[in-house]
């Protein structure tokens, strides 16, 4: 604990908790230890317990008894300052065709956004209990959103473990148990305030206390719970001690004294008969048709007679027919004795569900399916149902609609939104891959091996772009480009690849002095000047060019020699038999080698003749 001394000086000292003082709970329950608001010290407090039974009789959280006949949905309990968002309502209806009697038909529990209704469909006989969530019947046991609902066979039990809240509802009535630690001094409604003080239990909205809780109850109709619209009284009830009774107080019937007699003496230390006597007194005073002498009637599952001689009621246990044996074979069912709906005083054997006896479940599903827990009608144990997902399945893989599925080569497959009627999964639809057989210029479409989906475009020509125009060349074909056609591009095929080679025509040395007059002209390709040479003797001449042999070619141009020139030849007219003819031939030569590159990628060695000297050799004249 922090203790302020002076001048902003604070001293931390241990806080000594006073010893807990024992108290007596007005509702008859045992006090419990709770923490104070600082969580340091403990003290005794009384948990909040409200109950109702009969037609109906109420006992508030603080033990105040009252009877109230209502025909509406009322607030049993709600928080004055909402903290845990818990509200509890009771739906009371008139349930007797003769007497002016109301019975609790339903208990409605609102917790956060969840609304659970516990309902009894049979108000005048054996209980027919069901639980609903938003008008949908629950399969018990139920556990969701922090709320649990189970059936004990006689009652429905709703619990909120996080808050320590327990609510029971059955044929005999209802009970609400709240921890004081969470709800103390913060409740209002038919169950009153939870502060161990009966004096302030009869409080109407606005914090106004009235003298009679039966009057208070009219002012707590529920709103927004069901379609029934009940309005509270418009005028405030009279308060204070100046209201005088208008009639003589009613005396309880003699049989109410049985509750205080030796008959129930052993029960008194455990459960006070006071509230039950008050309920009996109320019921006996409000009966419109009391019993007469020698009248036979049934009460508390006993056959009774109003005896004239003794002026008392004599009862004996009611005789019930023999119970037919029942065999429970289905999993989870156990044999129990319950009240017979047609005769609540007699029992019958039925197969009751006990989920704790159910065998373990296999919650595995195949690919494409998800396990869903459900309890089929007429069965006790939950079963796993494999429901289809919104997917396609192929080779144990799930695919979302619209995605590609790799099913088979040469097919395009997609997961669609169409449902397979057999599997209830989405269907996979496929189509063959379309083959594009149109190829670019210079290429041709050819089929490949059978494992390929489509053929392919294979290059068959060279493609040359000159000034933005594509030209298609066959293998070995040349195309002049610039420089008046003296630059040429040649298409060749090397290692299966079409390539182009650009080369320039090399003109031999031109000397116009060696030309016969008037014979100078352009070569056929227009690149070089040529002429008719003047008469020259036989001599070695040279030309620069590639060496080609069997689809193989030298890497560069070579100096190639040959014999050329005039040799003296004559024939005399005067002597026809006298003639002499000579030709220019090689008189000395040598063999040389060169490496040639072939189309298939091979490199071969080629031998060619290199002329070194020429001369005129005599030959026959023609």
TrEMBL record:
Residues 538-622 form the CTCK domain. Residues 278-352 form the VWFC domain. Residues 48-231 form the VWFD domain. It holds the Pfam family VWD. Keywords: Disulfide bond, Glycoprotein. InterPro entries: Cys_knot_C, Cystine-knot_cytokine, Mucin_vWF_Thrombospondin_sf, VWF_dom, VWF_type-D. Gene3D superfamilies: Cystine-knot cytokines (2.10.90.10). SMART domains: CT, VWC, VWD. This is Intestinal mucin. It comes from Labeo rohita.
């Amino acid at each position: 604990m922090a203790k302020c001394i002076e001048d902003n000086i604070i001293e931390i000292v241990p806080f000594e908790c006073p010893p807990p003082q024992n108290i007596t709970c007005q509702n008859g329950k045992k006090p419990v230890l709770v923490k104070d608001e600082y969580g340091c010290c403990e003290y005794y407090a009384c948990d909040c317990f409200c109950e109702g039974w009969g037609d109906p009789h109420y006992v508030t959280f603080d033990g105040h008894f009252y009877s109230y006949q209502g025909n509406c949905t009322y607030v049993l309990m709600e928080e004055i300052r909402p903290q845990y968002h818990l509200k509890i309502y009771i739906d009371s209806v008139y349930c007797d065709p003769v007497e002016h009697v109301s019975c609790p038909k339903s208990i409605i529990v609102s917790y956060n956004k969840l609304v659970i209704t516990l309902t009894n469909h049979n108000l005048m006989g054996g209980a027919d209990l069901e639980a609903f969530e938003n008008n949908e019947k629950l399969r018990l046991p139920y556990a969701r959103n922090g709320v649990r609902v189970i059936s004990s066979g006689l009652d429905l039990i709703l619990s909120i473990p996080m808050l320590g809240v327990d609510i029971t509802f059955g044929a005999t009535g209802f009970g609400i148990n709240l921890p004081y630690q969470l709800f103390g001094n913060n409740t209002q409604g038919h169950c009153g305030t939870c502060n161990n003080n009966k004096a302030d239990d009869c409080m109407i909205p606005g914090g106004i206390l009235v003298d009679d809780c039966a009057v208070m109850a009219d002012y707590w109709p529920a709103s927004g719970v069901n379609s029934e619209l009940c309005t509270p009284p418009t005028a405030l009830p009279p308060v204070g001690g100046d209201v005088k009774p208008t009639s003589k107080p009613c005396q309880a019937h003699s049989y109410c004294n049985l509750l205080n007699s030796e008959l129930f003496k052993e029960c008194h230390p455990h459960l006070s008969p006071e509230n039950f006597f008050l309920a009996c007194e109320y019921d006996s005073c409000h009966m419109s048709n009391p019993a007469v002498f020698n009248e036979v009637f049934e009460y508390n599952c006993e056959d009774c007679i109003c005896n004239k001689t003794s002026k008392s009621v004599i009862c004996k246990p009611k005789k019930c027919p023999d119970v037919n044996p029942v065999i429970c074979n289905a999993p989870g069912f156990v044999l129990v004795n319950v009240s017979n709906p047609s005769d609540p005083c007699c029992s019958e054997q039925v197969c009751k569900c006990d989920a704790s006896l159910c065998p373990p479940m296999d919650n595995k599903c195949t690919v494409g399916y998800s396990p869903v827990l459900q309890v089929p009608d007429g069965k006790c144990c939950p079963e796993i149902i494999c429901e289809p997902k919104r997917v396609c399945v192929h080779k144990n893989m799930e695919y979302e609609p619209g995605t590609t599925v790799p099913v088979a080569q040469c097919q395009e497959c997609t997961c669609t939104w169409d449902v397979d009627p057999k599997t209830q999964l989405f269907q996979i639809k496929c189509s063959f891959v379309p083959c594009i057989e149109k190829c670019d210029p210079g290429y041709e479409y050819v089929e490949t091996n059978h494992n390929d989906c489509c053929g392919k475009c294979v290059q068959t020509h060279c493609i040359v772009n000159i000034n933005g125009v594509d030209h298609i060349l066959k293998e070995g074909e040349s195309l002049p480009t610039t420089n008046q056609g003296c630059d040429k591009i040649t298409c060749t095929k090397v290692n299966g690849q079409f390539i182009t080679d650009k080369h320039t025509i090399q003109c031999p040395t031109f000397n116009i002095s060696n030309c016969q007059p008037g014979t100078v002209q352009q070569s056929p390709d227009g690149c070089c000047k040529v002429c008719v040479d003047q008469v020259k003797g036989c001599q070695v001449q040279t030309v620069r060019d590639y060496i080609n042999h069997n689809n193989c070619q030298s890497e560069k141009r070579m100096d190639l020699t040959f014999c050329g020139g005039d040799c003296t030849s004559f024939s005399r007219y005067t002597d026809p038999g006298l003639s002499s003819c000579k030709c220019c031939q090689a008189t000395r030569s040598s063999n040389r080698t060169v490496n040639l590159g072939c189309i298939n990628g091979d490199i071969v060695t080629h031998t060619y003749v290199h002329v070194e000297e020429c001369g005129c050799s005599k030959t026959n004249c023609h």
